[in-house]
Amino acid sequence: MGLVYETPQSLIGAEGFYPSVLMVSTISTVLAMVAGVLVYLYGPYWGVRRVPGPPALPLVGHLPLMAKYGPDVFSVLAKRYGPVFRFHMGRQPLIIVADPELCKEVGIKKFKDIPNRSIPSPIAASPLHQKGLFFTRDATWSTMRNTILSVYQPSHLASLVPTMQNIIESATENLHASEEGITFSNLSLKLATDVIGQAAFGVNFGLSKPKSTSESTRTVDDQGSQNDEVSDFINQHIYSTTQLKMDLSGSLSIIIGLLVPILQEPFRQILKRIPGTMDWKVDRTNKKLSGRLNEIVSIRMKEKNRGSKDFLSQILSARESENVAKNAFTPDYISAVTYEHLLAGSVTTSFTLSSIVYLVAGHPEVEKKLLEEIDGFGPHDRVPTAYDLQHKFPYLDQVIKEAMRFYTVSPLVARETSKEVEIGGYLLPKGTWVWLAPGVLAKDPKNFPEPDKFKPERFDPNCEEEKRRHPYALIPFGIGPRACVGQKFSLQEIKLSLIHLYRNYTFRHSFSMEKPLELEYGIVLNFKHGVKVTAIKRT
Ligand code: HEM
Questions:
Q1: Per-residue pLDDT, 84
Q2: Of all protein residues, whose CA lies closest to atom 27 belonging to ligand 1?
Q3: Which residues form the domain of 510?
Q4: Is 411 in the pocket of ligand 1 (CB under 6 A)?
């Protein structure tokens, strides 16, 4: 014992050798660890350090700026740093592109070098969201996309008009009955979810229909009325959607993922086992949702005469007829892509519809012109066809474009480089997150003079402003081969809804409607307190 103790002592005393070995190795370990942490934290920054941007705080990056300026943060930074700048979402730098010509370069001209979307931390926490079209990559994505596009033929969209119209009519009965007014954004979310439920799953969720008259034509498990289950499913869907936050207000694992992504998954694994935490709730909800979706898919797969009206049936039929689609669309991918439709098709469309009603309610001169056009189309019981919707409502088109410019529901569009590529004079390494900023383009006075004024006439094809404008200045549905697959579907639904609404009502802001309207960041933009209006019956 003594010897063991003494030998090092003597070494220390005699030559000072042992402490220096110990110290050197301790110092090297600490230095290696510090270097490892620094490389981990600043590695992604190093490759893009030449791109201008504000100084970033360790770990949180520029998230405090997002808290300070809200959704306007990217316009503020574009003014200060130019059309290509750095924004650090926690540790992860994003290269934000806020110029129409450069967006065209990223989204179209250099698509083969930038074909995929980066996966942000809130999505990384949600396996359910990863197998849809949004986040699949390369060859899997293009096979899936081609099959999905084959479903969105114009004739198929046109055949959806009566379904959409039925849901719209029953959802908007007696809106004037409530004297205090209605939260239109809640109604429009139910309406859009019902429309996409019917179009994607062939299921009537019956959310927007008054309860007493609700009758399901086909329910989730196709065994008669199961309204509780359906609304449970939808509540889970809404919960899982609204929990995907892009700032620091999401679940703990998402927050950790924004700061130190490598720790997100281990933390999620621990937290999801602790009852009461948000991670536990999100995990349970996602499991239930996936289970429910897999159930729907497996029931529908076994059906012999499943018909071809809804998206799920069409994808299943395409899968059976093509080998390529069969390999890409395994049942878990089918569940994900159908669920993605519910997600992508409800929140975005509902937000757009509500923002139009909100903006028109505050601009009586726009309302007057819109009513003239809608009334001029013909008797109020004449339902417009898909062709009518595309060609006979030019002012409605302008109102929709201007509202989508004013409140761009998807202000950022994500991409990731798959090799080294030059954008706007900066060489970006493989794996760089390049995000386009349609929200900044939409408020740029170069293309939209007086950007804070709601002026649908700026989109009149005969107006100088419209003729002068860059063709990619307004890209609310994204750009290039990866642009939104649901654009025509949602425009058809929005137009049908607005025509029916304004044939029957006009709207004014309720007393409880805050001014100015407050917005919050989820995976898309949302209203903080909803759009509250009173409906006035037209006679
Ligand atoms: C007002 C309504 C909508 C808006 C503003 C909107 C916006 C967008 C945007 C900005 C993108 C990204 C495009 C890009 O990266 O260039 C996108 C992609 C997508 N959207 Fe929509 N969307 C809407 C409605 C819909 C609907 C109704 C569906 C489904 C029926 C849908 C399904 C999708 C899908 C699957 C993608 C991914 C496409 C791909 O990666 O290939 N969206 N959408």
A1: 98
A2: 345
A3: 47-537
A4: no
Q: Is the CB of 22 under 6 A from ligand 1?
A: no
Q: Cα–Cα distance between 299 and 226 in angstroms, integer?
A: 16
C-alpha distances (whole Å) from 229 to each of 192, 205, 240, 261, 350 are: 19, 10, 16, 36, 23
CA distance 186 to 327: 39
Cα of 362 from ligand 1 centre, angstroms: 28
In a domain, 13, yes or no: no
The dihedral built from the CA positions of residue 65, 67, 73 and 74, taken in this order, carries a sign that is positive
Q: What is this structure's pTM?
A: 0.87
Beta-strand ranges (E) seen in 75-208 are 84-89, 92-97, 182-183
Mean pLDDT of the chain: 84
Expressed in angstroms and rounded, the spacing between residue 347 Cα and the centre of ligand 1 is 11
463 is written with which tokens? Answer: 């107006």
Task: Spell out, as residue ranges, where the chain has pLDDT lower than 50.
Answer: 1-14, 212-227
CATH number of residue 268's parent domain: 1.10.630.10
Residues comprising the chain, all counted: 539
**Annotated binding residue 484:** yes
Instruction: Give the total number of structural domains in the chain.
Output: 1
CB 488 near ligand 1, within 6 Å: no
